[in-house]
Every structure is written in C-alpha cells, then in structure tokens.
Amino acid sequence: MNHFSWRKIILAIVFWPVVAMTADLHFAPLPMLEERALRGQFSPLLEHISYTQGTPVTWHYYPTYEEVIDALVRGDVNLAYLGPLPYIELTEQHDFFTPLARVREKDGTAAYECALTHFGAEEVPLQMLQHTRFALTQPLSTCGSFAVSVMLSRVGLALNTHGNRHDFTGGHDKAALAVLAGDADAAGLKAAIAKRYASLGLRVIETAGPYPGFAFIADTRTLDAGEIQKLRETLLEFTQDSNTESWLSRGMISASDDEYEQLRADWHQVKHIISTLK
Amino acid sequence: MNLSSRSITVFALTASLLLAGLFARLLFLEFERESTLTQARLAASYHSLLAGYREFADVTSQWLLSDEQTLVLMQRILDGDNVARGLLYRTWTPFYRSLRLKHVRQLHFMDAAGISQLRMHAPHRSGDNLRSSRPLIKSVIVTGKPASGFENGAIFSGFRFVYPIKDRGRLLGVLEIGLSFAAIRRQLENDAETGTVVRFLLSRADLLRTTRSPDESSVSALLDSLYMPALGNRYFVTENLANPLFGTPEHVLPGYAQAVELRIGQNIEVQRQMRDDGGGAHLICTDWLDCFQVGLLPVKTRAGETVAYILSYAPVPHFAERAWRQFLLLVAGIAAITLLALLLVQVKRTRRHMQMIGEHVGKGIYVINPSGVITYINPAASRILGYRPEELLQQHAHELFHAESENVQNLPSADCPIRKVTEIGQVYRSNNEVFLSKEGTRIPVEVTASPIIEYGEVSSVVTVFDDIRERLAAEARMSESSAAFDQTAEGLMITDEKHRITQINRAFTEVTGYTQYDVLGKTPAVLASGKHPASFYQKIYNDLESNGVWQGEIFNKRKNGEIYPEWLSISVVRNARGNVASYVAVFRDISDIKEKENRLAYLAQHDALTGLPNRNLLKDRLLHAMERCRRQGVQLGVLFMDLDRFKKVNDSLGHDIGDEMLCEAVKRFRNNLRVDDTLARIGGDEFVVLLEDWDDINYSHVVVDKLLQTISNPFELGGHEVFVGLSIGVSVYPDDGEDCETLLRNSDTAMYHAKHAGGNTWRRHNAVMEADPVERIRLETELRHALENGELCLYYQPKLNLHTQQFNSVEALVRWNHPTRGMLTPGDFLMIAENGRMMHEIGIQVLRMAVSQLAEWCDRNIDIGICINVDGDSIGRHDFVERVTGALNEFDVDPNRFGIEITENAIADQTVRVVNELSRLDEMGITLSIDDFGTGHSSLTRLKNLPFRILKVDASFIRGMLEEHSDKVIVGATIALAHELHLQVVAEGVETDGQLAELRSMGCDAIQGYLFARPMPPEQVEQLLLD
Fold it and tell me: Closest Cα partner for B636 from B687, B669, B676?
C-alpha cells in the first residue's frame, strides 16, 4: 500500500464520525419571486426535509440566476430548485449535480412544450418570422430564447438575424399579452399558457419540446448516494395540504439526468446563439 | 386618628380617586373625540374618493362607449370573433394602462346576458356568466341604467361602476369599471396622518358566496392566498399585502399592526358594531402608553348590505406626552387634595386639641359674642365661678359675674373693658379684675381678653382668666421670704443640681462683690481662691454626697481679687425622689474674726512685752527642736534662766523700770545667741533658751558663759546703774528627758540648784535632782485603793454671775481624802492617775457623785447647777453620752442644771462623731463649757460652730492681766470674740478686786476664784448660798 493510500485510511478513521453524520443541507431556489414569497412557498417542504433527514436546512436566497449557479459551484449550496435550462447550463460545466425530482405540471406531467405564437386570424409560416419583434419570458427560461431559438433554427432563422429583435417580458402571460397589445409580433411561451389566450386570437406558429420541468438537484460532493436517495424519497412522498394553492401540491416524480438528453441536444444546437443574446 | 380625621382621609382618598377617574375620563374623552374626528375625516375622505372615482368612471365610460369602433369590436366579439376580442384588448390597452395609474383595476366588457367577454385585467378569462353573482351587473342588465356600489368579485372586491352599452338603443352589453379596494385603501392611507394603517375587512362568508365554484377547496385556497385572517377571528379576512395584487413587497405594516388588530378583534364594542353593521371610533390600547385611534367604517352594497369594513388605526399623537402631562396634572390635583385633607385634619386636630386644652386647662375660658353673651365656657371657668355651664351659656358675662374692674365697682356693661374688646379689637390684659362667684365670693382674677377676628371684624372675644387668690397669697409670702432672704446677714447661694448658681442674696453681693448678673448660671468656681487643692473641693463633694451637709472654713476670692476666709455651710436639698435638687450654701465672712483670732493666737504664743515666744510657743518650739535633734542625732540644750534679784529691782524701781530691764536683758541675750536659737519668756523674769547642737561644747558652753557674762554687766535704767545676775539650769535632750514637761521641769530644777548655789552661775541637771520613783508607785497603788474605797470626793467652787451677782452654778473639783496625808488636790494625784490609766474611772465616779449631789440639791430646792470636768479620753469614748444621760435619768435630774467643762485642748482634735455627740448633749439642755481657753490652739470660729455656750478664760491670763498687758489684751479680746459668737465668758482664777473690776469693765459674764469662794465641800456651798 503506497503512502497516499495510508493517508486516506488515516483521514477516513479520523473523520469517520463526521463522515458518518448527515451533511448539513443548504437550499437555494431560483429567484422566481421575491424572497418572502418564495420562502413562504418552500417552507413546508424544507421543514419536511429537515424533519425526515434529521438535519437543519439552511435557507439561501440569491437575487439572480447566475448567483445561484455560482453558489452551487462553490459548494455554498448543495440543494437547489432549478429550471431545466439552468440545470443544463450547470451540468455542462460540472458533473457532480444530479436531479432528484421534478414537480408536476397542471396537466399532471412533469414536462411541457414551448410554443411560438402570434396574433391574428391568419396563420403565419415560421419562415415569415423575419423583421419580427419577439416577446420572450426570461433569459434562462426554457420557453424563452432557448425554445424560440430552437424553433427558428428549424427554418434557419434566429432571434438575432434577419432583422429580428426581442424583449424579455418577465413571464409567459406577459409575453402573450405583449403580442395581444401589439407590443410584439410574436412570443415564446409555454404552450399551455398560449392556449389560454386563444380566445383573444393568439395563434401557435410552432412548438418545441416536450422538455423536463423544474427539478430539485443535489450536489454529490457533499451528499452521498444514500443521502441523495433519502432526499429523493422525501421529495417524492411530500404532499401538501390541498387547501393551499401551491404548485408543490401537485406532487413530484423522480428525475434523472437521462431525461435531459433532448434538452441537452437542443442546447448544444442553439447555445452559441443564446450566448450571443446574453 | 379620630373618627373625623378618618372621615377626612376617606374623603381625600375618594376625591383623589374621583379626580383620577375624572382626569382619565377627560383624557379618554379627548382621545375619543380625536378618534371620532379621525373617523369622520376617514369617512369624508372615503366618500370623497368614491365620488371622485364615480365621476371619473362616468367620464371614462362615456368616452369609451362613444367610440364607434369599440362598439363594432364589441359586436364582433358578441358574434364570436376571438380576434375582435384581441383587437379590443389591443385598442383598450393604452387606455387601460392609464386607468391602472389611477388605481382602476377592472375594465370589463360583458354581453347583455352578463357573460364576460373581455377582462382587461385578466383577458384570458372570459365566458363566465356574472349576472347571478353580481347584483350590479344584473341591475344594469335589467334596468339598462348605470349602477355603482361596493361588490365582491370573483377575486377582487371593490367599488364597481357598471354602465349599460347600448347600440342604437339596444342593450349591447355591460361595461364595468372596477376600483380595487387596495387603491382606495392606499389613497386613504395617503390622505391620513402618517402612521395610519387602513385595512379592508371582508366577510369571508360573503367572499365564498360570491366566488362560486364547484371546487370549493380550490376557492378556499384561492381566498387564502389572497386574503388573510383579520382581527384574530375567522369571520373577516383582509387583503394579504404580500400578494402583488394588493400590495408590494416593500409594503410592510408597522410593528404594532398585529397587536392592534388583535386587540381590535377582541374589543367587545367593535364586535357589537360589526354585528350591527355599524361603525364608529374607538380608542384601543395595546399597552399603557401605546394607544391607538381606531375607526371602523362600514362598507355597504348598493342594497345597503354591509359586506365589508374599512378599518383604520393610528397611534394617538403624542399619547405618552399627553398622558404624562395629564398624569402630572392628576398628581398635582391629588397633592392638592391631600394637602387640603391634611390641612383639614390639622385644623380638626387643632380644634380638638384646643377643645381638649380648654376643657382640661386650669384657667377659666369663656367666649362672648359682640353683645357680651357667653357662647362658650370651659369646665375650669364653671368651677371657678361656681356655676354649672348651662347657667352661664347665653348669659351676659359682665352682668352675671364681673364685679370689679381696675378697682372700679359696678362698672356699666358698656364700659366693661372685656366687652369693649369687641369694639376696639385689641387684646385686653389685667390682673386687677374681680369676678363674683355664684355664692358671692369675690375672686380676684387675672384676665386676658383677646378678639377673634374673622373676615376683618371681631366676631367674638375669648377671655382667659385665672383665679389668683392663691398666687396673691403666695406672692405675699414670697415677698416676705424674699425680704428675709435678702435681709439675712449671712451670704446665701443656691445652685441647681449641676452646681449652677440660681440665686444669691444681698449679703452674698456685699461679701463677694459679685451681683447676680455676674454669677447666675455660673458655678461657685468663680469664687475659688486657688488656695485649696482640688482634693479639698472633692472632699466637700464627697461629704455632701454621703452626709448631705458640709461645713468648714474656706478661702474664697472676692470680685476685686481679694482673698478672704469664710465659714461655709452647704446643705443638699433633695426632691421627692431623693435626687439632688439643689445646694444651699450659707457663709459668713470671718475675716475680722480670723484677724482677731490670729492676733489672739499671736498673743497667746508671745510675750507682749518682749515679743518673745511664751510658754505655749516654747513648748511647740521645743517639740520641733527635739524632733530635729532626734533626726540629726545631736543633743538639745534647754536653758532655764532666771534673773537674780529682779524682784528687788521691780519692787524698788517700779514695774516700768523692771520692764525696761527685761527688754534690755532680752537684747543682750539676743546678741549672744544665733538667729535660729529659740529664746522664750515664760514668766516674770524667767527665760528659756533652746540650744541645738548642745554636744558641741565649744559652742554651747561658750554661749552659757556669754549669757552669764552679758547679764552681769550693769544696766543703765532710769539714771540708775543696776546690777543683776543670772541663774541658768540646763537639761539636755535626750539625756535628761524626752518630753517637754520633763525637760522644762528638770531644767527648772537645775536652775534652782544654780540659784541655790548663789546665782549668776549655771547647773546641769543630774540624776540626784530627780524625785524618788518608789514614792510614785506607792501613790498609784493607794489611788487605786481610793477608787475602790470611795476615798475620792467632790469640792465645789461656785461661779458668780456678774450680771445677777448670784451663784448660779458650781464647778465640781475632785479631792482625794487620803487616810494619812489628808485632803489631796488633783495636782497631787492626777499625774499618777493619768500614768496609771485611772482617769476614766475617776471621771465616772465624779459624774455619779456630781449628779447625785445635784439630785439631792434639787430635792432640797437648792437652786444651783453643777459642772464637771471631762478629759478628752472620756468624751471620745463611744458610751460617754449614754453614761451621762444614764446618770441623769438614774437620779432624775434636769439636764438644764448640769454642765460639762471640756478643756480647749481636749476638744481640739475630736472627730465629727464626738462633736455630734456633744450636740446631742446640748440639745438635751446640758450646758457645755470650754475650759482653760487660751492655753490651746482652738479656733474661735470653729468653737462657734460647736455646741458650747460658755467659754472659761484660763486662770493664767486672769492672774497676769493686771501686770501683763498682753494677758489683759488676750482676756479682753477673748471676751469680745466670745460675745460676738454668742458665748458667755467665765473668768477663772479671779483673786483680786482689781481683776474683778477689770473683768467687769470688759463685760465678762461670770467669775470663779478665791476672791469669792474657794473649792468647798457641799455643805459649805449650801451655807454660802444661804448667806
């Protein structure tokens, strides 16, 4: 046994009690809402996790997507709630994060499609989207610049070519209303949401997906396989009081990195375009 | 605390509580008024807002619905054109955005059936029928007229302004402009004071009823996300300001909001008002100093149904400061009440005390009104005047008992000085008033009549009077006592128990020079002369402490610094408890007496002619010389000198020449003696010289020779040359005697031997010259037998009273009727008796024989007293007085006819006890006499304070008084001093008419001597008295 092996054994013996203990959990969500609202939504779940894991869960809030990613990479946070695109972006650079569970959509699935929409009585071919004002949701939103770029790329178009321009409205409804109000010519948003505005003449030009929904991910550097499995089970079994209106009450399904392969392929296809949009 | 004071205290407490309640109520009312005003402002602001919005909504609806294109789009929507809906949304969006800036939330288009076609705030939601759930919409559809009012919506509750949309008279649809209540709330908050919170309370039940949905749980969840429980109960909810629909993330309620709302929810009045669909203003406190103005404004539907409330609350402005200010006012008020109560209690107590004083004071008190009518009388006044109180009350005081004023009788009531106090308002005092008792007794009184002035006018007169009959009598007695005190010739000084002088008399001032202004309050130390050590004064205090009295001589200092002697007697005066109350000192200046005494003492010890020490002083000098020689181990020579042939000179040339010769002889003696050598004259021509260091023969013998030589030289006297000689007898201490008598006797004997040898020579005493001791022993034995055999008897020598020329008493003198030697005098055997310690027995026999004789004379009515002589040893015995009284009692003799004579020397060294014993004899009536006065060293001032009545001048002075001037002076001074000390004087040894005449001229009281009677047996005394 060489010198290095001996050292590992000694360290393992010395730190065995520490290693044997459940690691502390540090959770951060994506900043979809202001902190108070977010904390209110996640508190029941985090308390449940703390109870079942036997360890406190420390709350972290970062005002931007980028800061959340950075915190994960630094190891300040080892449990996070991320959308699919941030997860792809994260795992592109670091392979020690793994998805635990995805939250169900309203239709009961844990995946969704994105739609490219416009207003009017007539259909508009995808190829016609030139010199067009696009209303997008958010920069890291799957149905935002990513999905729109994926759909435009199918006809050789892009958000930043052929006279196209875009604006981030901050949400799917806002993107739809921007088109209805005449502030934009087309909008990228969840297909399910686009459907709600059909009664106002919003039409779907093209769709992309389905893509995995939002998921809880864990850092394998600080959480061992057993802990990760226990966390996953905790999330899957979590049910919330039905009289509270929360997306978490819709339940979760187990997630794995394999489910992101299509998304990761599309990402590779358009990430050079998206990177220029940023 | 008496009942009244307790009542006042209860009143004060009650008043304080009422005041506290009043202040609290006033403060509360003030806050309530402010709350009401705030509430009114809130209501006004609320209604004003609504009116403004209504007007705005009216204008807006008219403007929107006047657009033809809008109506076309609406028609297309109604025809099912979704794009038209989108176009209408696009058309209205700019306008709707401007409405949002004015807090308008809903711009809602519905068709004529009440089905939603376009919600600008939620454009994706349409197709739901609101006619049934929205009364306003139904009203507009039914009536075709605009309607407005508060209404709950599916999500939002607020004020709705609903207008019919008509196209050429046909109801096309309905336009709703909705104002979210959050907008009104924010506006109200902006209009209100800083810190005011406005909440919108909604009935949860109404909300559930309005938000109809088949999925009740989802509706409930929706409501829970939008609203939150209000006022701590489940009946009302309020907007969740955390929800972006109602607030902003930055919208944070103040910290007190939760506590205030909880307290509001618990407030019964608020609950009642909400039950009754009412509103109002409230003051609600969460803590002592955290109070809030709360306004509750009901929000009613168009139908008048209360479906919500506007709740506003804000901290009471400056509540703590105002409450504190009010509290300070309250404290000040309570302090004032307390002070008032204390004053009342004090007044009550004072009045009570005054009443008690009035009832218990020894002086009479009555009060009259301006009419002179008695309105109050105290028990003492009733007692003094002899009336019952009811007999005095409401009576005219002056007419009833005022008999005399300032010596004026029957004074008219109008002139009564007491009553006139009511007119002049000044205090009237008089000690010259007379009141008349009920029984008619005239009572001199001292009166003080004082006006009681109320509100500037005399309301009554309080008269205090005192029966001064006893005082007047006491003053009279005091005046007499004071006169006696001042008139007494002896100085008097009284101190308190701490020795501070409290009183002196005039004699004190005359003696010491100090007036009462000089010494009152000071201690007698101001008189201290400095001649006595501290122990002297300490002994005085000790004696006073133990005996209660001290007397003696003391030197004090006058104010002018002169030191003088005084005879001082101090007595302790104790109070009833036995404690020292004061000291009374009586003293007499004895300067004159001391001076005479000193002179007397000088004369008693010196020869008046030559100034040489006489026999008395010689003995004293001899004693001291013996003591010195004994200490120094040397011999002392006693030279007894007698001039030879001096009598011949005296007889031939006269006494003057004889005196001149004696003086010259003394000079010659002096010239041959040392200064320290004592030269004394003990008789006419007898001198004694004391030569210390006699064993220094070179000196002593030379001196003797010089003395012989100097006298043998002729004297030039009166033109005559006179020759005399000198015979000297010498005895030497200690060889020839160790006491004065022996030495003098032996030197005398030796002198006779010298004279017998022819004179002008000297002889030393020797053993041959001494008497036969065998003979003395034989006599002592015989004397003892004589005592046993009753051989002693008494002779009596009468004393003649020169004032009455009668024999009043006799002196008993012992005789020994010796069987072989015949009748022997005391000089023959007393020395032997003293040496044989038989004096006491002899004294007893003398006492019994004398008393027995006196009893016999009394039985036989022979009126004469008997005195016996008692020596010092006998009177010092503890049973002496009992023995005397026993004898007197045994023979039943009147003590006044019995007397005791004690020699001056015998009394000199006696103790206080013996002196007290003698005082007892004196008190019994026994006459005590001082015998042989002048031979001792007694102080006349001391004798004055001893219980002696008679002073007997020694016979030696009487015998020489005609020849020796000094003796005459002594006798005269003694008589004068004795008289000054109130002593009678008896002269002893009177043998000649010349002596009698001289004594009579000196004022001597009685004489005793051979001139009238020798000592004689009792039978002869009886015969003498008969003659």
Answer: B676
Listed in sequence order, the DSSP H helices in B66-81 are 68-78
Q: Which residues 170-199 of A have a C-beta within 8 angstroms of B?
A: 173, 176-177, 180-182, 196-199
d(CA B302, CA B73): 31
Alpha carbon of A243: minimum distance to chain B alpha carbons (Å): 5
Judging contacts by C-beta atoms under 8 Å, the chain B residues touching residue A197 are 123-124
> For testing the chain A interface, which of B81, B90, B211, B218 should be mutated: the one with the most A CBs within 10 Å?
B90
Whether the CB of A250 is below 8 Å from some CB of chain B: the reply is no
Residues B692-744: tens digit of each pLDDT: 888 887 788 889 989 999 998 888 888 888 888 899 999 999 888 888 888 98
What is the reported pLDDT for B776? 63
3-class secondary-structure state, position B929:
strand
Query: What is the arithmetic mean of pLDDT over A97-111?
Result: 83
pLDDT digits (tens, 9 = 90+) for A216-274: 999 999 888 888 898 888 888 886 554 444 667 778 888 888 888 888 888 888 888 88
Is the peptide bond prior to B389 cis by the omega test (within 30 degrees of 0)? no
Contacts of B222 in chain A (CB under 8 A): 245
Q: For B77, name the nearest residue in chain A, comparing CA atoms only.
A: A200
B368 contacts: CB under 8 Å, gap ≥ 6: B374, B375, B397, B418, B419, B422, B460, B461, B463
Closest partner residue to A243 among B84, B93, B224, by Cβ? Answer: B224
Token pair for B962: 């005609």
Tokens found for residue B288: 């002592």
Decide: B110 and B127 in contact? Cβ < 8 Å: no
- CA-nearest of B520, B536, B539, B518 to B528 is B536
Q: Is A2 on the interface with B (CB under 8 A)?
A: no
> Per-residue pLDDT tens for B562-596?
999 999 999 888 887 788 888 999 998 888 888 88
Pairing verdict, β B715-717 and B725-733: unpaired
Among A residues 114-173, those touching chain B with beta carbons less than 8 Å apart:
119-121, 173
Cα A132 to Cα A150: distance, rounded to the nearest angstrom: 16
DSSP string, B625-642: HHHHHHHHT--EEEEEEE
- Predicted complex ipTM: 0.79
Inter-chain contact A34–B87, Cβ cutoff 8 Å?
no
**Number of other CB atoms surrounding residue B503 within 10 Å:** 17
**Helices and strands: H and E segment counts in chain B:** 36, 39
Contact B220 A243 (CB under 8 A): yes
Please judge whether B124 and A197 are an interchain contact, meaning their C-beta atoms are less than 8 angstroms apart: yes
CA separation for the pair A144, A135 (Å, rounded): 8
Helices vs. strands in chain A: H and E counts, helices first = 10, 11
Which chain A residues touch B249 with a CB distance below 8 Å?
A: 34, 36-37
**CA triple B673-B677-B679, angle to 5 deg:** 85
Helix, strand, coil share of chain A (percent; to 5): 45, 20, 35
Spatial CA neighbour of B108 closest among B52, B68, B158: B158
For residues B996 and B275, give the distance between their C-alpha atoms in angstroms, rounded to a whole number: 147
Q: What pTM does this model have?
A: 0.46
Q: Count of A–B CB contacts within 8 Å?
A: 62
Q: Decide if B835 contacts B780 (C-beta within 8 A).
A: yes
Comparing CB atoms, the residue among B86, B89, B217 nearest residue A242 is B217
Looking at residue A187, what is its pLDDT?
93
| Per-residue pLDDT at A14 exceeds 50 | no
Q: Which residue of B has its CA nearest to A184?
A: B90
Task: Name chain B contacts of A198, Cβ cutoff 8 Å.
Answer: 82
Q: Which of B911, B836, B834 is nearest to B880 (CA)?
A: B911
- Residues on chain B touching A180 (C-beta within 8 angstroms): 86, 89-90, 93, 123
